[in-house]
From TrEMBL:
This is Zinc-ribbon domain-containing protein. The lineage of its organism: Archaea, Methanobacteriati, Methanobacteriota, Methanomada group, Methanobacteria. Residues 158-180 form the Zinc-ribbon domain. Pfam families: Zn_Ribbon_1. It comes from Methanobrevibacter millerae.
Length: 181
């Protein structure tokens, strides 16, 4: 593992499975803070194997908070919530790590056009949420516009069945054949 990272911590990942139940995973992580994303290189806690890299783009983050040690936990944590509903807790971090990360996130929010990176995984997750009626068409449009940027809200239509973008005059989806409302 390269020594090129900003800090090391434990990461608690909370994701929903297909039945809607929260699944938790805890691993070690080497965190690198970039201009437009946070890179987490994960490593197993018990078996020290490499578990891959995850990137969180700042435009996917809905909130970020810092919990200092107290009555309910003995370590300091950075809580990161994504618009997709996923939650990540970076455990055993210093307040300096949070300040550095939060500063980059706030700077990105003030100037989001600084990057052209769009997390295709994020867009696909939102398309899946839209397809499953977990978010509305308006919410999907807003999220897609935020991820991709500079899209004309009025001209964008999406298939209710598969989430594919439709042309203005479409009567049927070219992807799945569903009739357009």
């Amino acid at each position: 593992m390269s020594d090129n990272y900003d800090f090391k911590c434990r990461i608690l990942e909370i994701r929903r499975n297909w039945r809607g139940a929260d699944i938790e995973h805890i691993n070690s992580a080497y965190v690198t803070i970039h201009e437009d994303n946070i890179e987490l290189r994960k490593k197993g806690l018990v078996i020290k194997s490499e578990l891959g890299t995850t990137n969180f783009y700042y435009n996917d983050i809905s909130s970020m908070t810092y919990d200092k040690p107290g009555l309910f936990h003995t370590t300091s944590n950075i809580n990161i919530n994504l618009y997709s509903g996923e939650k990540f807790v970076l455990q055993k971090v210093k307040v300096e790590n949070y300040e550095q990360l939060h500063e980059k996130w706030e700077a990105f929010k003030k100037n989001p056009q600084k990057t052209n990176n769009v997390s295709s995984d994020s867009l696909l997750k939102y398309a899946e949420l839209y397809k499953e009626d977990l978010i509305t068409e308006e919410e999907f449009k807003a999220i897609k516009q935020k991820l991709i940027g500079n899209l004309s809200e009025d001209s964008i239509k999406f298939c209710k069945n598969c989430g594919l973008e439709l042309s203005e005059d479409s009567k049927f989806c070219s992807g799945c054949g569903t009739k357009v409302d």
